[in-house]
Structure formats: structure tokens, C-alpha cells
Amino acid sequence: LCAPNLLKSARYDRYVLPESVQQTGLEAKYREAFRQAGEAAVQLRAAGAGEDVLSYLLLSGQTVPVLTTMNAGELYVFFRLRCCNRAQWEIRQLAEEMLRLVYPVAPHLFAKAGPACVSGPCPEGKMCCGRTAEVRARYAALKGEPQNG
User: Fold this and answer.
1) What sign results for the dihedral spanned by CA atoms 33, 36, 42, 45?
2) Cα separation, 147 vs 140, whole angstroms
3) Buried (b) or exposed (e) across 76-112, using 16+ Cβ within 10 A?
4) What is the pLDDT of residues 13-61, one digit of tens each?
5) Contacts (Cβ under 8 Å, ≥6 apart) of 38
6) Cβ burial, residue 53 (10 Å; 0-12/13-18/19+)
7) Quick check: 95 and 76 in contact, CB under 8 A?
8) Averaged pLDDT for residues 114-131
9) How far does the chain reach from its first CA to its final CA, in angstroms?
10) Residue 31 annotated as catalytic
């Protein structure tokens, strides 16, 4: 998908609000920036700007609904990559929620699902977060599994 195709469903009132912005007390200013971006998009459209120009506004944190399909193998790869602590927090939250939802439906199939370190060594080498035991315990809890002492 290229950004101009996403413009059809983009709205400037849907965006990611990082915790760090809330903690700094700049939430109102952050929200105002998106409001202004929405106004700029309307004005640019009215002035005849093309989707190639409007797509630049889209790349500033707005969320766009996306629908995809994945089979179990694709989900397993998605979980391995996107549940990792090195994945961006927004996609990690989404991946964890997806795993929480699919695990009860097929517990045997997704028993070892999660970041790579859940079922083996961390593949990140020196970039490893160093919290393998904590991650394994967290994913056992997410799946409702008993924790190994």
C-alpha cells in the first residue's frame, strides 16, 4: 500500500498518543497539531493539491484502519517479530492483544507463539533486551499458563 491510497480512509482525529507526551503535559499541544494538520489538508485539497502532496500530512502519526488476513503460519511469524521488546510499542501492543485473542481458540497451535525468546534463544544477539526470563513469564501469564518456578 502506498500512502496516497490510504488517504481515502485517513482522518486527522485518529492518531497515536504516546505516554511520553501525556507525561510531559503537552497533550493539548500535541492534539492541536493534529487538528491543524486536518485543517491544512482541507485547505490544500481545496487549493487543488494532489494526493502525492496530501500523503505527507498522513505520515505524522495518524492511524489508518487496515484490514488484513493471516493464516496460522503467518500469525506465528508476526508474533515472533512484533511481540519482541525491540518492536515499536504500538505494534507490540496490537500483537499481544491478537495473541491473547487467538490463543484460547487454538492453544496447542499457539503454545509457543510470542517473541522468539519465548520458545528458544533470543535472535537479537548483542541487541537482546536481556529480559528473557521476564518475557517468558509475561507470555505464560498472557496465555493463562502456570508459571514455572
Assistant:
1) negative
2) 6
3) bebbbbbbbbebeeeebeebbebbeebbeeeeeebee
4) 888 888 899 999 999 999 999 899 889 988 998 999 887 778 777 767 6
5) 11, 12, 13
6) middle
7) no
8) 94
9) 46
10) no
Q: Which residues contact 141 (CB under 8 A, 6 or more apart)?
A: 147
Which residues 6+ apart lie within 8 Å of 129 measured at CB?
Answer: 85, 86, 122, 135
Instruction: Give the count of beta carbons closer than 10 Å to the beta carbon of residue 48.
Output: 7
- Point out the catalytic residue in the list 35, 82, 86, 138: 82
Residue with cell 515499536: 88
Query: Which residues sit opposite 103 in a β-bridge?
Result: none
Specify the range with the lowest mean pLDDT, choosing from 8-22, 75-89, 130-144. 8-22
133 vs 129: CA distance, rounded Å: 11
pTM of the model: 0.66
Using the structure block, give the residue that is written with the C-alpha cell 500535541. 30
Residues 117-131 as b/e (b if ≥16 CB within 10 A, e otherwise) read bbeeebeeeeeeeee
Answer yes or no: are the C-beta atoms of 61 and 16 closer than 8 Å: yes
